[in-house]
Amino acid sequence: MKIAMGNDHTGIELKNIIKEFVEGKGYEVIDLGTNAPESCDYPVYGEKVGRAVADGEADLGIAICGTGVGISLACNKVKGIRACVCSEPYTAKLSRQHNNSNVLAFGSRVVGSELAKMITEAWLDAAFEGGRHQRRVDMVMEIEKR
């Protein structure tokens, strides 16, 4: 399984930690983030992650900026993306089980590396439950068409 990862300048260190963590779990990582410490624009990297997932280049995505909010907003502008900002593992797990999220976002200024690993693990280990949740995900995706 391939994971697209993207980040702005605030997320370089955490991206590298999570990249190593994810690769250690057997996933292939497509690194679409910056590695330059100079200030850059998170929408560029959010769109890259969103497009990689939407176009099938990657199965899932992980996006990191200062809070996770800005980069997730950019991801969610790409048709077919359901990015969720998570600051703890329970929301990450439920975002996959109930919302079929395909991009995980978190903030390098919000969560530390160990918590980010727990969030990532909970998200990757969870699976979409379908059933009543499918109808709701379909409703959300219909909004995109209008």
TrEMBL record:
Signal peptide: none
NCBIfam families xref list: PRK05571.1, rpiB, rpiB_lacA_lacB
GO BP: D-allose catabolic process; pentose-phosphate shunt, non-oxidative branch
Entry keyword Isomerase: yes
Keyword annotations from UniProtKB, A to Z: Isomerase
Binding site for D-ribulose 5-phosphate: D8, H9, G66, T67, G68, V69, G70, N99, R109, R132, R136
Protein name, entry field: Ribose-5-phosphate isomerase B
E.C. code: 5.3.1.6
Molecular function GO terms recorded: ribose-5-phosphate isomerase activity
Entry's family note: Belongs to the LacAB/RpiB family.
Record-linked SUPFAM superfamilies: Ribose/Galactose isomerase RpiB/AlsB
Classification via Pfam families: LacAB_rpiB
Keyword Hydrolase among record annotations: no
Active site feature: C65, H98
Top-rank EC class of the record's enzyme: isomerase
